């Protein structure tokens, strides 16, 4: 399946990154407000609705419920609304995820959403967390390419997700690496920079979190990963 799963959350929302034609759109709880405010309606609504004012719920939700397009969960549950949305996308066969509205606000939810990116890599999928100032992705035993645009160079930071990540090679960045090892207790990968050309970040054994300035570059995972 080549189409993307686009998930909207209730956090910081970047209007530059809206669903494309053919994307399967999931609203994770308050992400329903983020979408409908911009006159975009989801294919599926997931969550316990604790982030949606009850007086906001329009008749559209009743229509969605009648068409089995709403999954309403208990407030007390193991998965976050975002993780539930991701699992719904995976069940439908999607391997590429755009998550808009998963950053900003509560730090614990931001960290949970970054962990959700790691979960996606473990399922053989790839995800991108979109914020107004920063984009975040994860790569496991694979490579991601950063392609700059006319906006200029971007700050790029990498972090180890797990005890250590081995065989890290960075090309096309100000500070290159060749077959290096990064551990989770040393943030040596912070504040690198693109230099006006495509860059590659690869890891042979382990998982990396990759953060970069939103809008300056876009990430493209190798097809064997997604």
How does this structure look, described?
There is one protein chain. The chain has helices at 31-36, 59-66, 81-91, 107-122, and strands spanning 5-8, 24-28, 44-47, 70-72, 96-100, 126-130, 134-140, 143-148, 155-160, 164-171, 177-183, 192-193, 199-202, 207-213, 217-221. The longest helix is centred in the middle third of the chain and has 16 residues, at 107-122. It folds into two domains: 5-132, Rossmann fold; 138-221, Thiamin pyrophosphokinase, catalytic domain (Rossmann fold). The strands form two sheets. It has a ten-stranded mixed β-sheet with strand order 4-3-2-1-5-6-7-14-9-12. It has a five-stranded antiparallel β-sheet with strand order 11-10-13-8-15, with no helix packed on it. It is an alpha/beta fold. The chain has four helices and 15 strands.
């Amino acid at each position: 399946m080549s189409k993307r799963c686009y998930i909207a959350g209730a956090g910081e929302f970047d209007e530059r990154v809206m669903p494309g034609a053919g994307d399967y759109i999931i609203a994770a709880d308050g992400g329903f407000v983020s979408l409908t405010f911009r006159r975009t309606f989801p294919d599926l609504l997931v969550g316990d609705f604790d982030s949606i004012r009850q007086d906001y719920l329009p008749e559209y939700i009743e229509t969605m419920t009648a068409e089995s397009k709403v999954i309403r969960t208990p407030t007390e549950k193991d998965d976050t609304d975002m993780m539930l949305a991701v699992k719904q996308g995976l069940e439908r066969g999607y391997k590429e995820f755009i998550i808009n509205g998963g950053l900003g606000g509560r730090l614990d939810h931001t960290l949970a959403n970054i962990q959700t990116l790691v979960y996606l890599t473990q399922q053989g999928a790839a995800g991108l967390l979109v914020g107004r100032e920063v984009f975040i992705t994860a790569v496991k035993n694979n490579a991601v390419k950063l392609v700059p645009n006319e906006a200029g160079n971007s700050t790029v930071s990498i972090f180890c997700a797990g005890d250590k990540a081995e065989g890290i090679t960075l090309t096309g960045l100000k500070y290159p690496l060749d077959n290096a090892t990064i551990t989770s207790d040393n943030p040596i990968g912070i504040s690198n920079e693109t230099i006006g050309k495509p860059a590659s970040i690869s890891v042979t054994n382990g998982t990396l979190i990759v953060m970069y300035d939103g809008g300056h570059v876009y990430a493209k995972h190798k097809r064997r990963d997604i």
